[in-house]
Amino acid sequence: MESRDFFINTKPIKLFFRAAVPGMISMFSMSIYSLFEGMFIGKFLGSDAFAAMNLALPFVMINFALADLIGVGSAVPISIALGRGDEKDANNIFSCALVLIFSTTLVTGSMMVFFAPYMFEFMGAVGETAKMATIYLRAFAMCGPFCTVLFAMDNYLRICGFVKTSMVLNVFMSFLTIALLYVFIVVCKLGVVGSALASCVSMMLCSLLTFIPFLLKKTVLRFGKPVFKMNVIKQIVSCGCPTFLSTMAGRITSVVMNMVLLSLGGDDAVAIYGILMYSSDIIQPFLYGMSDSLQPAIGYNWGAGLGDRVKAIAKCVFTFAGIFSVVASFGMHIFGENIAGIFVESSDISLLRGATEAIKIFCFAYTIRWFSFCAQGFYTAIEMPFQASVLSVGSAMVFPLIVMLILWPLGLTGIWLNLAGTSVLMAVLSLFMLLKTQKKMKKDGLVG
């Protein structure tokens, strides 16, 4: 089905399942890969390697954040431009974005290769843990320019209506990564660098595959000579800022958390926090899959001036995200020990017990976290970057740091409760903002 007709004429509930379900499957496959990565490192390389990887991941994600800034920032105006029938503008934004992604990640990756040891030394990491973290980060940083384009291209595929193609590529990448993890870590015994290489090799291959429909000219978007204008760059940066700020703020918070964890409980506390982040990959990818997959649909309809359809699609996202999150959260609580056992050697009783207790506390945050997550995605899709940025920075940095100070007397338990406290505050803020936006949309005649 032609992409414009698909997004604008398909019934909202049918559109949700046809667009969101493949996106959820894609994200689920990534969460499976993430679980296997944590399992291979925890089981075969030990808790020090697990802690090292957790120290390095925030910086890896910062490098990816710039690509997300451009990828998501371009996807929104591309969808809106196509919604109003301006293919020339959409193609130029598309072409400019690809050049910007490669050049910016080349610069940031080079900086991380050089500064990696000094960053971990500043955080307080020492010995073998610091050495492994440096190796892991450098491997990702050197491959970054060829990996980071993948997620932007995935957005562009979905904008062009290649929803199933996007799903198949994501599933293929995840299972290829799992296979490479086994080969590099278990067979070749490459250590933490093997984990990084497994991800990078599969990402680079799939990045190449995403270009095929565009090179064969089977998509509505076409490559062309990019015309860099200030308004184009400003539009990309403006729309991408919420996702960028969320990632950057979240990684800064993770760095602070890791420093606090090192002081409160050493490498074991950092390892438990890493297990919590991996366990959250059971739920969060589904939420991201729902929200991100429907953003092109919301953008198309917003660009076409169909406010009531935008509202109807958004309701589907909020409803299904809430139901899924509550069920999954209670499931994590019930199977907390089984989840912890995926990442911890059975002989390490103390770490297994600590991780199980932390998961059972941490998981209840997702009974409410979905609300602000969906609200942020909604504001991004309708090109309201200020509102989306407020939610992203609040969720990723401002409220977590405030809650950390409030719960400081509880020690490590306060850290495990941090996401729950943050989620409650964010839900209140999101509800207030959405009600205010709905009132303004009614006043402007955008919705009935």
Task: Describe the structure concisely for a colleague.
With about 450 residues, the protein is mainly α. It has helices at about 5-10, 10-45, 45-85, 85-125, 125-145, 150-160, 165-185, 190-210, 210-215, 230-280, 285-305, 305-335, 335-345, 350-360, 365-380, 385-405, 410-415, 420-445.
List the helices and strands and how they pair.
Layout lengths: L2 H7 L2 H34 L1 H37 L3 H37 L3 H21 L1 H11 L3 H25 L4 H19 L1 H4 L14 H51 L3 H20 L3 H28 L1 H8 L5 H14 L3 H16 L3 H22 L5 H5 L1 H26 L5
Helix pairs in contact: 1-11, 2-3, 2-7, 2-11, 2-12, 3-4, 3-5, 3-6, 3-10, 3-11, 4-5, 4-10, 5-8, 6-7, 6-8, 7-8, 10-14, 10-16, 11-12, 11-15, 12-15, 13-14, 15-16, 15-18, 16-18
Question: Would you identify the regions where 5 or more consecutive residues have pLDDT less than 50?
Answer: none
Overall tally of structural domains: 1
Element order: H for helix, E for strand: HHHHHHHHHHHHHHHHHH
Structural class, by secondary structure, is: mainly alpha
Compute the number of strand runs.
0
Provide the β-strand percentage band. under 5%
Sheet having the most strands: none
The rounded distance between the terminal residues' Cα atoms is 29 Å
Helix content: over 70%
Average residue-wise pLDDT = 84
Count of helices? 18
Rg for CA atoms: 21 Å
Give the overall form: globular
